[in-house]
# Entry
Amino acid sequence: MNSIEPSIKPKQLVSSLSVARKQIVEIAKAVAAESNIIIMDEPTAALSESEIKRLFAIIRSLREKNVTVIYISHRLDEIFEIGDYVTVMRDGRHIDTKPVAQVQNRSELIKMMIGKTLFEQYTPRRANVRIRSSRLKTSPTTG
# Structure
C-alpha cells in the first residue's frame, strides 16, 4: 500500500475512505496479488480532477511494472492521454483495435464507435408548426 498511496494507512477502515481512495485500495489489492491484468470500468466517473491525475500516475507506474490495465471509458480525452492501444466494441462486436498513436483524432475514434461521422446522414427536420388563434373566455370572479 505504501508504494501506491502512502497516505492511506493499512489499519484505516475502507468505509471511511473517499471513492478515489477506495479505488486505490482495490488497485493495491490487485498489485499485492501479483495480478498481470487489472480491468478498470469507467474509473474516473466519480473522481475530481486531482483524483484523476493521481489515478493516471498510478496507472503509469503499473505500466512500468508490466501490469496491463484494460481501461474502459467513454471519456475520449482520457483514452488519448493514457492509452497505448484502443479497442472499440459496438453492439457486442469487435470493431477495431489499433495503437492510440495511429488514431488521427477524436473524430476518427467517434466514427469507429458509432459507425459514422457525427454529421453524416444528418438531415434537419422542418418544423411542422400550425398557428391557431384562440379566444380566451373570461368570467367575472367573485371576491
User: Anything to note?
Assistant: The CA atoms of residues 65 and 112 lie 31 Å apart. The longest strand covers residues 93-99.
